[in-house]
Amino acid sequence: MSIHSFLSQHIHKAWQRKGLLSTLLFPLSCITQCIVQRKRRYYQQHPDAVYTSHTPVIVVGNLVVGGAGKTPVVLALITALRQHGYTPGVISRGYGVRIGEHAHLSAQNTEANYLGDEPSLIAKETGVPVAVHPKRILALQALNQAFPQIDVVIADDGLQHLQLGRVAQVVVQDARGLGNGRLIPAGPLRDLPSQLQHADLIVTQQTGSDISTSPEYIQGVPHVGMQLWPTAFRNLETGQCLSPDEALSLFSGKTVSAVAAIGQPQRFFSMLQKFGVNPQSPLSLPDHYDYSYSPFGKIDADFILITPKDAVKCKKFADKRIWITEVSALFSRADWHTPLLEILQRH
Length: 347
Fold this sequence. Notes:
Number of strands: 14
Helix content: 25-40%
Shape: globular
CATH architecture of the largest domain: 3-Layer(aba) Sandwich
Radius of gyration: 20 Å
Structural class: alpha/beta
CATH topology of the largest domain: Rossmann fold
Largest sheet: 14 strands, mixed
CATH class of the largest domain: Alpha Beta
Number of domains: 2
Order of helices and strands: HHEHEEHHEHEEEEEEHEHEEHEH
């Protein structure tokens, strides 16, 4: 585990309670709260400052810092919208990518060094049009102009980008929930906890618990549980694809390690353990790690499992030991997307 991942893990653990560290930092959180409230009040008082597109926008975001599972929800939502006759597109920030005045479009390039890792993954896995820019409005305008056939836009993150008009909000969280309920730096929240009540759907990613027991509502908002589960294993170098059972047979009796550069790497390792693979000495890397050099050479294992998000940046490493763990989102209810479809039908 890297120093960054070690510190991140312990900070998130500390944020689960109102301990001494949180109390000492609480005055700074009050400043954060004032900034957040002032920003929200401005857009409430100046609705003309909010950009509303002719294309309805569904924002998928989270209230806490760190990965909560937004991208799997975006992928699942794309599938659901297509099944109901919609033509979706996606806008995102493009984290780690230098973007000038104009948004980057997937029609020009789908690589991670152009779109960012998560938008690249979305573009490659689904083929939907993607536009990225730190200013989400510029991404939305570019997307609408380049792809006029799109009739609904999913904003991957952007819950706090209040200038971006939206018809629906999906809040994704994990077992941490709202933590100690305090804003950063005394807690994990980057927005007011009351904003949970303004969501149209809450999705909670779970690892160890049974998603079928998930409550249907949280604070009066429709809620579904979600788990990620391996659906296939694909060799990074050769492209060979194995079913879960075939992969388990291949890995049996061999040493298997895992590498993850996502918001919560331990969640990936826990999923593998529940699946039946116990990764030896798993390596946690910072979220959005750029893979400027290979971290795999020092790993002594017969097989190395990575996430799809990492895979879009690792193709340059020729190592037949690396296998991509392809996953799908399983929801506590098959009709999890119904609240969003009902909103779209009204628009």
